[in-house]
């Protein structure tokens, strides 16, 4: 692989104009595609084959599309000492409802004071109107959202408290806020400090942006042909930008190293791709496998997110091994600080000095203390993980109209009113059986109200609305759904289904929670196999996998403490606190696995190389650490900045994911890889590199291009023909 990549790097730098133009054409092409073919994204989650999803499809067939349309609940509350049914307040409500019914896109706005179907609280202080749209929540336009928000604001002028809630009010995930730009600026600063050259820093950032632009635009284009979740593009941008910057950093760092060894610009670029590029391809492949592996869970929307993000990683790798060397050919020695362009490497970096080498010696000498402190620290941070709860229910940000509306609904109507369960009785005998079902369900615990069954026009189905006494995130509601399914039987010619947004949330959450241990076992097993192949060792993979588990535990622990318990929630602008979004844990595991293995490969491969060249185990750790740690730390700092930038202004879906990835990267790079791993390897000594004889048939993966260093090719400027250097050289 190293030889092939060396040739690719050489071809890219020699044909840099063609390579640069090709990538620019690709960027323009997908940009045009995104602008002309883009469709809408979805904010709802469902799993084909689940009872709740099957019932939802049947409801659409039996009762029409209106059952699946987006709704907004506009909540009215009378001033203290008054009732919403007082003549003056009732007139205000009627006027507002009439205005709501005329808004763009609205097909109906119910009158909460209608004697035939009132929606008034028992104390007559509050009421709510259901505003219905004929489309899915994601298809409600910004103009329609602004119109209903303006109508609610105007309704408050009459003295009533008027608030609104509903999925139709939620904006899809946006990209390009101030905090995201700040993350890019931080990345540029770190790159400039690392390189000591603004030219190199700017080139690194621009190539990463080009790659993520192509990936994101490609995903946006796909929305015109298939339904993707609204979080998919922003997840791909967040991940693609982070790894794109890091992969280019590894290539450029090696290019600068080769320049200062005295190689020409072309030879340096080719060697950088052949050596660091091999590690980039291996690391990128690891992330791709982890993300594409989300498909094994059997959840379509999760598979789509994983494959889309994996596609962005593939583009980032291709950019790193083709466009980056091409641009390096343009800037040449300007990639180095001016004062180092003519300074040989050995003069500028005398052996045996530097903070990084001193840190490595400290950790390896105080290995027991270092390992215990690192493990204990991450173990304490991981404690909240054991109380993690998950849900698909979208929580409104504190202080928003959605949050105020929810408070009024919970206080005046009960926590179950805003998230009812729907029971579909389907079949020729549905009407008769639905009456029995309604009576049976009404007698179950935690049922506040079981409304009479509503048959469809054809008499082939009936719908029963159940109001739980508890909210959608309460375990009692989960138990109620299972109780209905376990205790209410089908009848001849009538099948009973439990559905509704709350039931769908419960089903999807259960599926995701069941899939997480399986997926975690898969990625841990993959990590072990990969590291055995890379390092031809059993103990190094064990150390790497245990370090990854520490990272995952600490990342989840910190996320639960902030987003579920509310610790320091205001400091990160968490918006709302409560159970973690169900899909977050499995996505976090997949991404952090890939990135943790990136750092393990880049760091330990240098130690492995030094040991293979005859260094004693402890000296090999120090040597490899000194060579790789500065680049890994710079890469982790950049990745932390990019992920953290999506927390303050991200939507409620992306915030906990971005936070977990940011802190997970910090824990993994600064504690696991900088302290725990070198300390553990120092404790193991020569046993760290031991491979049983019965496994020595395994192929050797040269992820650092050591073969190229042992026998570098000679590049003839005139023809570009490569010939190996004679052994005597």
UniProtKB/TrEMBL annotation:
It holds the Pfam family MMPL. PROSITE patterns: SSD. Residues 181-330 form the SSD domain. The keyword Acyltransferase does not apply. Keywords: Cell membrane, Membrane, Transmembrane, Transmembrane helix. The chain crosses the membrane at residues 181-198, 205-226, 232-252, 273-301, 307-331, 368-386, 516-535, 542-567, 579-597, 628-647, 659-684. It is found in: Cell membrane. It is a multi-pass membrane protein. It comes from the Bacteria. InterPro entries: MMPL_dom (IPR004869), Mycobact_MmpL (IPR050545), SSD (IPR000731). The keyword Transmembrane applies. One of its GO terms (cellular component) is plasma membrane. Belongs to the resistance-nodulation-cell division (RND) (TC 2.A.6) family. MmpL subfamily. This is Putative drug exporter of the RND superfamily. It comes from Actinoplanes derwentensis.
């Amino acid at each position: 692989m190293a030889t092939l990549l060396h040739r690719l790097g050489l071809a890219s730098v020699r044909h840099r104009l063609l390579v640069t133009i090709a990538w620019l054409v690709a960027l323009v092409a997908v940009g045009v595609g995104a602008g002309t073919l883009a469709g809408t994204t979805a904010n709802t989650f469902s799993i084909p084959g689940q009872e709740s999803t099957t019932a939802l499809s049947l409801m659409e067939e039996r009762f029409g599309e209106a059952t699946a349309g987006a709704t907004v609940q506009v909540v009215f509350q009378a001033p203290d000492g008054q009732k919403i049914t007082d003549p003056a307040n009732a007139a205000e409500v009627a006027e507002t409802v009439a205005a709501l019914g005329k808004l763009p896109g609205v097909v109906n706005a119910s009158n909460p004071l209608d004697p035939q179907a009132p929606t008034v609280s028992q104390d007559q202080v509050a009421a709510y109107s259901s505003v219905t749209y004929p489309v899915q929540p994601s298809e409600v336009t910004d103009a329609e959202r602004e119109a209903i928000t303006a109508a609610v604001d105007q309704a408050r002028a009459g003295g009533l408290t008027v608030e609104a809630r509903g999925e139709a009010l939620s904006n899809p995930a946006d990209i390009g806020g101030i905090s995201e730009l700040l993350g890019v600026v931080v990345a540029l600063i770190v790159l400039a400090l690392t390189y000591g050259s603004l030219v190199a820093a700017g080139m690194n950032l621009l190539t990463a942006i080009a790659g993520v632009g192509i990936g994101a635009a490609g995903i946006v284009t796909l929305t015109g042909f298939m339904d993707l979740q609204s979080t998919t593009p922003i997840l791909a941008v967040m991940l693609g930008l982070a790894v794109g910057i890091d992969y280019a950093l590894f290539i450029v760092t090696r290019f600068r190293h080769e320049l200062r060894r005295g190689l020409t610009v072309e030879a340096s670029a080719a060697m950088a791709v052949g050596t660091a590029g091999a590690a980039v391809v291996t690391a990128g492949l690891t992330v791709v496998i982890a993300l594409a592996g989300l498909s094994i869970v059997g959840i379509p929307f999760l598979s789509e997110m994983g494959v889309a993000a994996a596609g962005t990683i593939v583009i980032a790798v291709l950019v790193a091994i083709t466009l980056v060397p091409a641009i390096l050919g343009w800037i040449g020695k300007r990639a180095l600080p001016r004062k180092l362009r003519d300074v040989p490497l050995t003069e500028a970096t005398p052996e045996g000095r530097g903070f990084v080498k001193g840190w490595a010696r400290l950790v390896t000498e105080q290995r027991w203390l270092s390992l215990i402190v690192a493990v204990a620290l991450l173990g304490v941070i991981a404690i909240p993980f054991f109380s993690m709860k998950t849900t698909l229910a979208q929580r409104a940000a504190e202080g928003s109209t959605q949050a105020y509306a929810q408070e009024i609904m919970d206080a005046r109507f009960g926590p179950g009113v805003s998230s009812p369960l729907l029971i579909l009785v389907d079949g020729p005998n549905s009407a008769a059986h639905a009456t029995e079902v309604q009576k049976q369900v009404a007698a179950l615990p935690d049922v506040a109200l079981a409304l009479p069954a509503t048959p469809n026009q054809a008499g082939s189905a009936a719908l029963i609305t159940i109001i739980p006494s508890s909210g959608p995130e309460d375990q009692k509601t989960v138990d109620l759904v299972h109780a209905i399914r376990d205790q209410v039987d089908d009848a001849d010619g009538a099948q009973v289904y439990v559905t509704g947004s709350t039931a769908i949330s419960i089903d999807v959450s259960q599926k995701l929670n069941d899939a997480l241990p399986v997926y975690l076992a898969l990625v841990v097993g993959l990590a072990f196999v990969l590291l055995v192949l890379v390092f031809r060792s059993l103990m190094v993979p064990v150390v790497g996998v245990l370090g990854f588990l520490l990272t995952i535990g600490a990342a989840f622990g910190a996320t639960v403490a902030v987003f579920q318990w509310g610790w320091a929630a205001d400091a990160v602008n968490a918006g709302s606190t409560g159970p973690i979004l169900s899909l977050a844990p499995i996505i976090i595991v997949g991404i952090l696995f890939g990135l943790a293995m990136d750092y393990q490969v880049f760091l330990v491969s240098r130690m492995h190389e030094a040991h293979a060249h005859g260094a004693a185990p402890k000296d090999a750790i120090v040597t490899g650490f000194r060579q790789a740690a500065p680049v890994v730390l710079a890469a982790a700092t950049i990745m932390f900045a990019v992920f953290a930038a999506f927390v303050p202004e991200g939507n409620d879906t992306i915030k906990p994911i971005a936070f977990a990835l940011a802190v997970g990267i910090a824990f993994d790079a600064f504690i696991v890889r900088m302290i725990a791993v070198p300390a553990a390897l120092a404790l193991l000594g020569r046993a760290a590199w031991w491979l049983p004889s019965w496994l020595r048939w395994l192929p050797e993966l040269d992820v650092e291009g050591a073969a190229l260093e042992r026998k570098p090719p000679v590049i003839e400027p005139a023809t570009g023909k490569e010939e190996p250097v004679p052994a005597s050289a």
